[in-house]
Amino acid sequence: MTTSSKFLFRASLVAASVAAASSVYSAGFALNDHSATASGTALAGAAASNADISFSFWNPALFVNAQDTTVFVSGAYVMPSMDVTNISANNSALAGGTTIAGSKSNNNSVDNTLVPSFYLAKPLSDKTVAGISLNVPFGLSGDYGDDWAGRIHATETGVKDIALSFALAHRVNNWASVGASVQVHKADIILGSAVGVAGKEGDGRIEADDIGYGYSFGVALEPKKGTRIGLGYRSEVDFDFEGDVKYTNVTSLNATLTSIGKANLVNTTLSDSVTLPSVLTLGLEQDLTPKLTLGLTAIKTGWGSLDGLNIDFDSNQDNSVLTFGFEDQWMYSAGLTYDYSDKLTLRTGVAMDNSPVTDEYRSARTPDGDRKWISIGGTYDFNDMTSATFAFTHVMIEDVSVNRTNLTEDASRGKLKADYESSANVISVAMNMAF
Questions:
Q1: What is the radius of gyration, based on Cα positions, of the chain?
Q2: Residue 137: which of 198, 77, 184 has the closest Cα?
Q3: Residue ranges of the domains in the chain?
Q4: Distance between CA atoms of 308 and 246, rounded to whole angstroms?
């Protein structure tokens, strides 16, 4: 096994072991920190930059940024905060019912976590580069615990998508490059909640996984020196999840369900089909002076493909349905890069990241709102072959409310109202090494 292959294998093990980041960081549950370099400008110029190979996540043509065999290792430490207040829950979603006892506030449902990214580029000729990358494109993690009043809607939620990509990039001429990749995605879902009726409660936990496949392609242009334009597309990824559900403490609950003619809750297998969204990225970099560069980016995520969950149990239990009602949304960013010296580059940027969640279908599992980013960062070149990059991002999230009071799909969950205040700080670091 070559040195680079051993490195990629170890990187895969590390990525597979980390938890998915909280949805507090990125709109929906997309994870946007795949490069400490790009994070320094809030992703401004993401599909167009000639800075390093990490921009290949948004545009595989940018693997041509590698002049030598290159490894780029990046990690983002996400520190989210989410306060849930004014919680009220009722055990009937449609009419009547009684109040569900439990905590009326919750501020411990999200934890700090690490999001890694890895890139390896190998020039095959003066014009063609092969690339391999490992990323976590989507992730969601939260645990309200078992004591809050909304526990029948959600206790634990986990989504993790790990993507291994194999790419080729080719420099067509001195101003145009193209690239494409194929991807293998491993996705896992965990859904936990209390289950109950007529004052009797137990707990249910769903675990499911699948492997899906996707692709990406892109083009990078420099029509005149100092003006760089890039367009990249990452495809939808289809999953046919299979897994199981396990219940605890449901003996009394099942007796009640039997008495009212309802199917018992039993451990069983399950399935559901889910499509993760496509991502279209348009980037521009313009050198304003020999030292100062302006970056602009627009990213469209096709959230409309992710309609929700419709979990089919291999038993007499009714399907578990959660409509997302997501809408396609755009993220916009602008940033500046300044070459302070031969060794130090400084960056800053701002972004508006629009949420795909609608008020009607916002839930305890997707308590999402629009975000604004403010980012700073920098790169220090130790020599021509090695550099280190740092970025800090503060994410401000609009206050939102969950108001699940009139949806038929909540008949077994009951009503839920809650207010959410959220924010996040993200520290990103990276090493870029050429050989």
A1: 23
A2: 184
A3: 3-434
A4: 21
Q: Which residue has the tokens 């309802």?
A: 262
For residues 174 and 301, give the distance between their C-alpha atoms in angstroms, rounded to a whole number.
31
| Cα–chain center distance at 79 | 15
**Could you tell me if 103 and 149 are in contact, meaning their C-beta atoms sit under 8 angstroms apart?**
yes
End-to-end CA distance of the chain: 17
E strands within 69-199?
70-90, 113-123, 128-143, 156-173, 176-197
How many Å apart are CA 3 and CA 70, to the nearest integer?
A: 12
Closest CA to 250 of 196, 319, 313, 190: 196
* Mean pLDDT per 10-residue section of the chain, whose length is 435 residues: 43 41 59 94 97 98 97 94 92 68 85 92 97 94 90 92 97 97 96 86 95 98 97 98 96 89 92 96 98 98 93 92 93 98 97 94 92 97 96 96 92 91 95 96
pTM of the predicted model as reported, rounded to 2 decimal places = 0.91
What tokens appear for 88 in the block? Answer: 């009220």
CATH of domain 3-434: 2.40.160.60
The length of the chain is: 435
Q: Is 10 helix (H, G, I), strand (E, B) or coil?
A: helix
